[in-house]
Amino acid sequence: MSDGPRLPGVEREDDEDRIVCHVDADCFYASCERLREPDLRGEPLVVGMGYEPGETVGAVATASYEAREFGVESAQAISTALERLPRRAAYEARELANELERGETGYYRPVDMDYYESVAADVREILHDCADVVREVSIDEAYLDVTDRTAWEVADGFARHIKDRIRREVGVTVSVGVAPTMSAAKIASDFDKPDGLTVVRPGELRDFLEPLAVDLLHGVGPVTARELREMGLETAGDVAAADPEPLVERFGERGRELYDRARGEDDRRVEPKGDPKSFSRESAFAEPVTEPTPKYDQIETLAAAVADRAQREGALYRTIGVKAVTPPYDVNTRERSLPGPVDDPELVDRIARDLFAEFEAEPVRKLGVRVANLEFAAADQTSLESWERNGDEPVPSSEPSGETATSDEHVAGQSSLTDFS
Questions:
Q1: Tens digits of per-residue pLDDT, 192-243?
Q2: What is the dotted CATH code of the domain comprising 278-417?
Q3: Beta partners for residue 367, in sequence order
Q4: Catalytic pick among 141, 204, 360, 403
């Protein structure tokens, strides 16, 4: 423990003294829906868009653990989700009564971000009360530096206190990981979901990491995991014991990062996030897709999600971009600059489609949409119409950027707000 008060963020001489918590809400949107509809507890529940009659495009935002048992996953096409888990409403209307048992159906609810944000605000209030330094990663995830609030000897009790407060005062469950580093804390929070609590003390870090499959390392997705296995590296222990040079040759600087994190080495500090430079969302297909329609459907879903995030964060944007990953793993990005900052979801969709057009006939593994050059706290929201009234047109700037794949990789059914760079 510290001998006296210390300003948040000031480093200790010994990194092993740092105590980092990663708090991750379990199926957050579904948990919020269960708050206002308690009868949904224990039932398969899907939160998403596009499942109502007449709607043709949509995706799963969150699937409860009960729904996941039927193969429903986040970011999955809503049509696929409905095939795997038909709506309970259709069963109760006797439309499916002769085909399925009641237990083979589930509930569907529309996304209600205003409500989810209000619940998240209650959770954040508790997190800021429990830690001097909080880094909010997303609506349902945050890192806490609790070094000055507890000690390793009682870290499990402190983490339990956080979990219990959130459950008691807000009504949602969270999983908490505690470790000396941010990456290990993230792994620990995922280790025993849902409603998990895993504490990894400094002397236990290497033993904890060593047997883990490589795809459990923070920042390793399905593509990177497959490449690591092709190199004969099956576990974090294998990566930690490997020669780092081939990793650097294969993955660039990220290879060194993978090597360090597999060894429990991560010197990043928990720091509050400033205004982001961009918002983006990406999603991968299980197999490369050639047909244009599913690709444009995915572009539409991603563009809507990114534009919605910008609106919720009060951000205007001057740049709209797309990413297309083609076999084997070639990353192609295109972007277009606008004459001024806008808030215009239709424009994001239209430009994203235009930028992607050159790839519509090519097989695509992964897609992404991004808005960048953000401005916050603008007095007036601006849309495309205001620029058109002024006689301006968006200025194209569609040169390849030469960017490489991010460390946040997602197979079909998973997506993440993350910068392209």
A1: 999 999 999 999 999 999 999 998 988 888 888 999 999 999 999 999 999 9
A2: 3.30.1490.100
A3: 283, 324
A4: 141
